[in-house]
Amino acid sequence: MKNSMEIKFKAIPENEAFARNVVASFILPLNPSISELEDIKTAVNEAVTNVVVHAYPDKVGYVEMKIQTSGNVVEISISDNGIGIEDIERAITPFYTSKPDEERSGMGFTVMESFMDKFEVKNNKTGVTVYMNKMLEDAVVGMYANKRANI
Ligand SMILES: Nc1ncnc2c1ncn2[C@@H]1O[C@H](COP(=O)(O)OP(=O)(O)O)[C@@H](O)[C@H]1O
Ligand SMILES: [Mg+2]
Fold first, then answer.
1. Domains identified in the chain, total number
2. Can you give the CATH number for the domain in which 131 is found?
3. CB 11 within 8 A of CB 61
4. What are the DSSP calls for 55-110, one per residue?
5. What range defines the domain where residue 136 resides?
6. 68 C-alpha vs ligand 1 centroid, how far in Å?
7. pLDDT digit string (tens) for 43-93?
C-alpha cells in the first residue's frame, strides 16, 4: 500500500520541531521501532535546520517536504529555493561547515547519511533537495487494506 503527503512551510526555527513531528505522525501507522523513528526524526531535523540556517541568507523562504511510503520503505525529500551548494562533495565531508564562527558542527549531512539507508543531496534548479530513504524492519504493511478486505 502506497501513501504520500507533501507540505510547504516557512524556513524558520519554530518549524523544525513541526517538520520532524509531521514525519513521525505520518509514518506511525507503519509501526516503526522507537530507534527507527528517532533516526528519521533526527535526519529530518538536520535537513530542515540546514534550510533554516543556510539556504536563505537574505530572506525568509520556504521548505517543501514530501513523504512517500511504499511497503516498508519511507522516502523523504526536503527542498528549498535558496542559494544552493557550490561544492556538494565538500559540503557532505564530516566536520565541514561554511559557518564555523556560529558553532555549527558540520555534521548535519553526516548524520543524515549514517541514520538513513539512502541519502543524496542535489542542487535542483533553484536550490537544494535532500533525498532520504529508510527501510522499516517490522513495518505493518497493508494493515488498512487487510482490514477493508475483512469487512
Ligand atoms: N539547504 C542548503 N542550502 C545551502 N547550503 C547548504 C544547505 N544545506 C547545507 N548547506 C551547506 O553545507 C554545509 C554542511 O552542512 P552540514 O553538514 O549540515 O553542516 P552545518 O549545518 O553544521 O554547517 C553547510 O555549512 C552549508 O554551507
Ligand atoms: Mg547542518
1. 1
2. 3.30.565.10
3. yes
4. I-TTS--EEEEEEEEETTEEEEEEEE-SS--S-HHHHTSTT--S-GGGT--S-HHH
5. 2-150
6. 24
7. 999 999 999 999 999 999 999 999 999 999 999 999 999 999 999 999 999
Q: How far apart are CA 83 and CA 23, in angstroms?
A: 25
CA distances from 3 to 17, 37, 76 (A): 22, 17, 12
Positive or negative, the CA dihedral 45, 48, 50, 54 is negative
For ligand 1, atom 12, name the residue with the nearest CA: 91
Active site residues: 46, 50, 104
Q: With a 6 A CB cut-off, is 128 part of the ligand 1 pocket?
A: yes
Condensed to tens digits (0 to 9), the pLDDT of residues 86-116 reads 999 999 999 999 998 888 899 999 999 999 9
82 ligand 1 Cβ < 6 A: yes
50 CB within 6 A, ligand 1: yes
Q: Is the pTM of this model over 0.90?
A: yes
CA distance 130 to 76: 8
Element (H, E) at 149: helix 143-150
- Nearest ligand (C-alpha, residue 51): 1
For the chain, how many helices (H) and strands (E)? 5, 5
CA end-to-end span of the chain: 18
